[in-house]
From TrEMBL, chains A, B:
Pfam families: TetR_C_23, TetR_N
DNA-binding region: 37-56
GO molecular function, one term: transcription cis-regulatory region binding
Source domain of life: Bacteria
PANTHER family, alphabetized: HTH-TYPE TRANSCRIPTIONAL REGULATOR BETI, HTH-TYPE TRANSCRIPTIONAL REGULATOR RUTR
Keywords, comma-separated and alphabetical: DNA-binding, Transcription, Transcription regulation
The name this protein goes by in its record: Transcriptional regulator, AcrR family
DNA sequence: TCTCATAAATGAACACGTTCATTTTTGTTG
DNA sequence: CAACAAAAATGAACGTGTTCATTTATGAGA
């Protein structure tokens, strides 16, 4: 994914891209991600196979475009829909909103996540291909923390934001495996996360727990999970 | 994977299976997992393409067989190589041994993990196809906990063992993305995990932290991540 | 309107994982 | 040894994601 949306494209190209993306998402919703072939997508969009590949480098790129759309929604919501409260409460809200958002897109997102966790994939959650989404969603969790009533100051807030971003990925991973109706198990897990955050929050003032957080954030940074821009924040060491 | 090893097979079949597996692992080590085709494997083993599929239902099955072998090694090591110490220390040792073990098999294991995290895959970490490895490695971490000098009693020990098993998967996931030489970042992360366990261990006696652990273990159980046998331990609810 | 470079679009071809109808080998029984 | 069922082995064929050489449209400048 070069740009958040098809910027730098001719109007005609943008329309075509949009048409193909719509066809893809519709088919995914109908028959599922795996069962939808690239040829199906092209036919449905009234385009040729090659054309689909002109705008989307791979099948998973459709899923990435979908997730990018959701991330943009999240960003808007975080800007003016996020109520006041503690870090724990705001994290829970953000996650519940995310779960609602994501609930009707299991198939494509599962395929995306599988690739996102593969370091070799062009769509690795840590690679360049996903820097856009990472920044967007990372920003959301930074806001969750920094706007909270019990927000830590500067440095720790950034660390906590990053860790919560990672936690959000872990919870989504859990959700993919959650077969309970309405994702009840996942919602309970989110509740547990809220409780745990509430219980541990005071301990963040103490050096041992503060160090744990720093190390965790440092570890994420070391493998390139930085939500603060594409090339900034190089690993601490070679 | 039906059986830990090719049990229930004719001697000839077992030999053939072994020959094909060896060819596969050798090629994976040489040119990498993705770059090795099933046709390559068959040719190298002096077999036909179809024959390879007679013994391995898919390409990833090779990786699963590899991991099964490693899990067996781990089990033996846990039986008589695991020194006395606290849960925190023993967990660190187990992870460091695992990292050494795994260090020369990045490619195939990365491919396996990508599938293992995909709920739809036959090789999902939570599915039947992987029950064998899960039991083996789960048993290792149960032993890590229950044999420790500061082991909690019965129920909590089982919970902690399961959570550490899950943590071990998370750390392996981290390792796949770790580009530092000798997996230095991962080793540091393991050190941090040891510190954190040491710091939090006493809190497990207190109700709030004990509840956190129970919930976490329950959450894992809810999605079928049970290391205590194939069909036992059904989800707590529909 | 004509020219022509650039963008858009095409679809045949490829590679690779996987399937399966068929053939060959093996071992057992009379 | 002959007959034959079961196991082992074969390789052609298929589906699908992806590539790319080629063709067709578009629009700006003369």
């Amino acid at each position: 994914m070069e740009e958040p949306l098809g910027r730098g494209l001719t109007p005609k190209a943008r329309r075509t891209r949009e048409r193909i993306l719509e066809a893809a998402l519709e088919l995914f919703a109908d028959r599922g991600y795996e069962a939808t072939t690239m040829r199906d997508v092209a036919r449905e969009a009234g385009a040729s196979l090659g054309l689909a590949y002109r705008y989307f480098a791979s099948k998973e790129e459709f899923a990435l475009a979908l997730y990018m759309g959701l991330a943009e929604e999240s960003e808007e919501w975080a800007r003016d829909g996020l109520a006041a409260g503690t870090v724990a409460e705001r994290f829970e809200w953000a996650m519940l909103v995310k779960l609602d958002q994501v609930s009707s897109h299991r198939g494509p997102l599962a395929a995306l996540l599988a690739r996102a966790l593969d370091p070799n994939s062009r769509l690795s959650a840590l690679g360049e291909g996903t820097a856009g989404v990472r920044e967007k969603m990372g920003g959301v969790f930074l806001k969750v923390v920094s706007g909270a009533s019990d927000a830590p100051r500067e440095k720790q807030a950034r660390e906590l934001g990053n860790v919560l971003y990672a936690l959000h990925l872990a919870i989504l991973l859990y959700w993919f495996h959650d077969k309970t109706p309405e994702a009840r198990a996942t919602r309970e897990l989110v509740g547990s996360a809220r409780e745990t955050l509430r219980y541990l929050r005071p301990a963040l003032r103490l050096p041992p727990m503060s160090r744990v957080l720093s190390r965790l954030a440092g570890a994420l940074n070391d493998i390139g999970m930085n939500t603060t821009g594409p090339s900034r924040g190089e690993p601490r060491r070679a």
